[in-house]
Amino acid sequence: MSEQNEKAKNTIMLEVVTPYHHFYEGKVEEVVLSALDGQYGILPGHAPVVLALTPGITHMVVNGETRYAMMTEGYAEVGPFMAVVVCNAAEWAEDIDVKRAFSAYQRADQRFHDENLPNEERLFARHSARRARMRIKMIANHGTDEQKATLKRLQGGT
């Protein structure tokens, strides 16, 4: 078997779409998604499954290199040769606006702790805070040096 055929046999097609753009399409050796039950790993030949996704850091291995993306709530349909992810938003670490994510977290957290807010709005604030917290975690773990420095300054570090 040729090296190219062997490589194709050890990959799965991954497609990630949001309402705003086609985020990613290509072959990956593995992908790990953030699902309701925790982190969910997918390899070529995976049994068919549909997953409810939660905001979190997704990682995918492409040509032996790991890439990280922050994805929000959505769902994934997985089969032996393909995984399709439909989520509200997906971003590479380097594309996240640090100041925007930090201020979004502060606003959402403040709204969540406002006891005069109706329960439905508090629930929305909790979800907003979780999305912003995942963006901040993504920057802290996988962002550029400039993003990490900005985050540290915003958090009151030196």
Strand content bin: 35-45%
Mean pLDDT reading: 91
Could you please say which CATH topology of the largest domain applies here?
Answer: ATP Synthase, domain 1
How many structural domains are formed by the residues?
A: 2
Shape: globular
Fraction of helical residues? 25-40%
How many strands, what sense, and barrel or not for the largest sheet? 5 strands, mixed
- In CATH's first tier, which class of the largest domain applies? Mainly Beta
| Terminal CA distance | 56 Å
In DSSP terms (H or I, runs of 4 or more residues), the helix count works out at 4
Name given to the CATH architecture of the largest domain:
Sandwich
Helix and strand run: HEEEEEEEEEEHHH
Q: pLDDT under 50 segments (min length 5)?
A: none
Radius of gyration: 18 Å
User: What would you give as the CATH superfamily of the largest domain?
Assistant: F0F1 ATP synthase delta/epsilon subunit, N-terminal
Strand arrangement within the widest β-sheet reads: 2-1-9-8-5
DSSP summary, beta strand count? 10
Helix/strand/pairing class, anyone? alpha+beta
